[in-house]
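Students often ask why inverse folding is considered easier than folding. One informal answer: many sequences map to the same fold, so there is more than one right answer. In these notes we will look at a single instance of the problem. The structure comes first.
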């Protein structure tokens, strides 16, 4: 099948040629004709399958055919809503590329940055708007955006949207859209809550499906190293050096963890950077750009920050931890091996994560190859139920102590938010607190997550969190209730 067979107009064909696309991917082949026929589409496809072009190309074509030759002020015709800033930026970059030989105007809006330039762009008029939910509702509230002219609505990565706690924002948006419209709904997985949501948005949709989440990775070679918690950094370094990796995306479950991993690698002269929700948008963009250009060798990212990262020909992804939600594993490894390229996903597994490997293998329906040639093999055992209960109790106690200390500090006139202050670092912290405009909080990501995570129980995906025992625990009364065996076993965390 060729793009010509999909009745794509000349200006877009020319742009596709510039991009070097010769044939449509399966999702494009299946979805584009239906979108051009103004049908609603329910697409089950994950990033990496070419789904962005599957909705962007026909949207550009439909608007171009309608507006061609008109000198009227651009009217907002299409709204594309996606969960993360990186994804929003990437979708707009795609639209820019495919529409470069048309007069289509487009813009992207997302939180975490000042709204001024986004508002200025909106005032100049756009046909297609790509947005994350928080900033979109914000600018609608301020009267800068009206949705009553929308003809084509796209909800992208719906499953991730719900994971990130955006359900109420989505409901608010749907209520603001004109009833008579065409809607496209994309999700990597289709559990019942997603199907239910799609029913409230779509009208008699055509269903198109490619590579269900559980079978990703057909093009990704997957391997696994079993190791101890304390050896992970050494093992990561060993893998990078042994395989001579010069571009690798490393996943970390926590934001602090991501910073730590990047810091450790830098100490070993490996050019690394981290991206996560506590970094300002421009820092994130800069790190991503440097990674794409090969200036940064290792990019360490949390799951949310990495969502939608699209790096052509990224060959290596390393999971510094094994995620407790199997679908997260599938999303992570899908960052490599995109659009049919060969990819490699390596996972580093500590004893507490052994059980997660089993769940992942069940989902993907195959065994992951275990690398035996490993200088840092796993010698420790996972915690028993009793040890885990003790661990959780201690963690809970530590949390309470942390908040009690923080409240004490605040009552004492400290006034700043964040960690309890130790006298040693007080000066530098005070300076930091006074600093104007620290890293912009990602409203789309972190504030939503905070609320969501508060409601989570232990079986749900875990919030990005610090390791249970911090430095201060060492030898002090915080560990007094811990059994000796546990103290010895988790000495690494107590030092
Ligand atoms: P997506 O699933 O939209 O994130 O796209 C994944 C990658 O596939 C991106 O790098 C696209 O530029 C690329 N891509 C999309 N469509 C095609 C195509 N027809 N031929 C080759 N590459 C494509």
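Output (designed amino acids):
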């Amino acid at each position: 099948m060729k793009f010509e067979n999909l009745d794509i107009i000349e200006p877009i064909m020319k742009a596709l040629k510039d991009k070097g696309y010769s044939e449509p991917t399966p999702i494009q082949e299946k979805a584009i004709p239906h979108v051009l026929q103004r049908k609603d589409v329910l697409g089950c496809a994950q990033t990496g399958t070419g789904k962005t072009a599957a909705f962007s190309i026909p949207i550009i074509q439909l608007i171009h055919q309608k507006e061609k030759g008109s000198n009227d002020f651009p009217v907002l015709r299409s709204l594309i809503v996606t969960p993360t800033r990186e994804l929003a930026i990437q979708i707009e970059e795609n639209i820019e590329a495919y529409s470069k030989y048309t007069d289509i105007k487009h813009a992207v809006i997302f939180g975490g940055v000042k709204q001024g330039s986004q508002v200025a762009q909106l005032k100049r008029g756009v046909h297609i708007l790509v947005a994350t939910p928080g900033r979109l509702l914000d600018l609608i509230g301020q009267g800068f955006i009206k949705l009553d002219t929308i003809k084509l609505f796209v909800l992208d990565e719906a499953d991730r949207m719900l994971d990130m706690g955006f359900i109420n924002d989505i409901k608010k948006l749907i209520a603001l859209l004109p009833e008579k419209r065409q809607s496209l709904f994309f999700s990597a997985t289709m559990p019942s809550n997603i199907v239910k949501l799609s029913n409230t948005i779509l009208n008699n949709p055509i269903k198109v499906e490619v590579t269900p989440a559980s079978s990703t990775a057909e093009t990704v070679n997957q391997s696994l190293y079993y190791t101890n918690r304390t050896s992970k950094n050494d093992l990561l370094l060993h893998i990078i050096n042994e395989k001579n990796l010069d571009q690798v995306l490393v996943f970390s479950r926590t934001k602090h963890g991501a910073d730590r991993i990047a810091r450790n690698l830098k100490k070993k002269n490996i050019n690394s950077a981290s991206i996560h929700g506590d970094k300002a948008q421009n820092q994130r963009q800069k790190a991503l750009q440097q990674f794409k250009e090969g200036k940064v060798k290792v990019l360490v990212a949390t799951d949310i920050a990495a969502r939608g990262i699209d790096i052509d020909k990224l060959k290596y992804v390393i999971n510094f931890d094994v995620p407790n939600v199997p679908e997260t594993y599938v999303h992570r490894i899908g960052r490599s091996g995109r659009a049919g390229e060969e990819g490699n996903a390596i996972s580093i597994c500590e004893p507490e994560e052994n059980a997660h490997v089993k769940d992942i293998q069940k989902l993907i329906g195959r065994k992951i190859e275990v690398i035996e040639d490993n200088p840092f093999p796993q010698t420790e055992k996972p915690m028993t139920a009793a040890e885990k209960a003790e661990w959780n109790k201690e963690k809970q106690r530590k949390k309470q102590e942390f908040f009690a200390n923080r409240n004490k500090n605040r009552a004492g006139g400290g006034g700043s938010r964040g960690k309890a202050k130790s006298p040693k670092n007080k000066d530098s912290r005070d300076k930091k607190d006074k600093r104007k405009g620290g890293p912009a909080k990602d409203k789309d990501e972190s504030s939503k997550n905070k609320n969501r995570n508060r409601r989570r129980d232990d079986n749900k995906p875990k919030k990005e969190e610090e390791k249970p025992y911090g430095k201060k625990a060492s030898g002090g009364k915080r560990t007094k209730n811990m059994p000796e065996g546990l103290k010895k076993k988790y000495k690494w965390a107590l030092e």
